[in-house]
Description:
Blueprint: H1 2-20, E1 23-28, H2 36-51, E2 56-61, H3 69-77, E3 83-87, H4 88-94, H5 110-119, H6 121-130, E4 133-138, E5 142-148, E6 164-166, H7 170-178, E7 184-186, H8 191-197, E8 202-205, H9 207-212, E9 221-223, E10 228-230, E11 232-237, H10 238-241, H11 246-280, E12 284-286, H12 290-306, H13 314-334
Helix pairs in contact: 2-11, 5-13, 7-12
Amino acid sequence: MRRVFFGGVLILLLVAESLAQQYTIRFATVAPEGSTWMNVMKEYDAAVRKESGGKLGFRIYAGSVQGDEKVVLRKIRAGQLHSGGFTGVAMGEIAPKVRILDSPFLVRSFEEVDFLYEQFDKEFREAFEEGGYVLLGWAEVGFVHVFTSTPIRKPEDLRGLKMWTWEGDPIAETAFRALGINPIPLSLDNVLTSLQTGLIDAFYTSPYAATVLQWYTRVKYMVDVPLADAAGAVLISKKYFDTIPSDLQQILLRNGKMYLSKLTRLSRDDNKKAIEEMKKRGITLLPVEEQELQYYVHVGARARRMLVGKLFTEDFLNRVENSLAEFRKNHKASR
């Protein structure tokens, strides 16, 4: 009798919980369990549940269990999922102009990154909404570096690399082709195996991602100048978002901004720590001389022009580049 009683109580509690939570956002990401990205996402979920009185919350699928980012997009379109944590490739399918944030050698500091997000926030949000999504918050991946099995001393050394690019990523493909590299496109989950078999011997990602995904264990060098700053965002289907009452929408947006800003700060710290950890484990940082750096900056500018009409307009690119130039001028003058 006692077991029957407690079993009945448990069922009642589960039913009460399901009735209380009227809106369950099914969220998927490639970020693995235990990572900073997932830890903060769980904090975000807990805050939303608490403030909404249990009416609103996430059901989180981590570590690519729902597939890579493109698969997640398809599942959102089919109504199987509602939300996702996305990086450049997927964001580009939703709002191509946002890929300007991932452009090679566009930004040189966190101050410049933050300036771009603030300066063009309205346009980016509108672009996402036109693509059918609402931005819950930016979740920056961080500065991306090139990792290799062989040392890169000068630009010509790049041309012999078997460089991975994320399959379907026009930014990376254009950047590497501008550098004289014929990249090898692969999905994210094939990178480690391809490094182990020798199909590729170089890749690009943030230092923290390289450690979390264990890719760094298959290379020896990291170029000590970032290729780009990789954007990330948590997005929710506008179709589903519009079914949520306005008071709960505000809870979702307000906490999204707060916790995902926290994630960006922590990611920047994680990337610094990851570099130090990799150095201890034998990764050599390759410095870049000023002459080579200017070459890379020039190639980056050329690559961005090659993407005009494909991802963004020439007018938008000019406004971004001119705004950054003005920011650098003012920032330098204030020092």
